[in-house]
Fold Association with the SNF1 complex (ASC) domain-containing protein.
Amino acid sequence: MDSIEDSDLFQRDDSKAPQEIQEFLAWQQDLESDSKSPTQDKPTVFRWSGVAKEVFVSGSFNNWATKIPLNRSQKNFVAIVELPEGEHQYKFCVDGQWTLDPTGAVMTAKTGTVNNVIQVKRTDFEVFDALRIDSEDSVDISDLSSSPPGPYQQDAYVIKTEDKIKHPPILPPHLLQVLLNKDTVISCDPTLLPEPNHVMLNHLYALSIKDMSASTQSGLM
């Protein structure tokens, strides 16, 4: 016989239960979407070493529908193709003839054709992913510089017409009263100059050199 407490467990109204169920379902959907998300393609290098005029590559990664040209370098032909993770069969077309890469792994397809095979693994690109993350972090740090925001540009300075005809600044009128070699009153000592104006203080005056001597005067008080 069930007790009253056991029946209450099934009959009580728990308001938190629907919310917890919704959170669990949302978490489960996110988990499924992450598991179904396509893997990021990885740059894969195809290289043909040998004498040739033109080289192409094709494989199961493009359903053998198109031929991707390889670029000629100093010693070989190279092409970089973005491939998803997994196993891919491929073959080179050298000067119009389908040819296997003698340095690569081979396998026999279901049709009996022998093709080269390559394994694209995520672990082979962990170093490149780490370098990419580091470069992104360094870019973020560089954005924190002290330079103010906004666009910057470099413009060549163009000499304006008014820049060519600039004259020296006009001397203030109160500095025209030079005390050197100025006539003095007879009652004054000829070796003493008149008392300068207050605006002439802290100025140094000099005349041209005559008879191997220069005459200077400082407006100090």
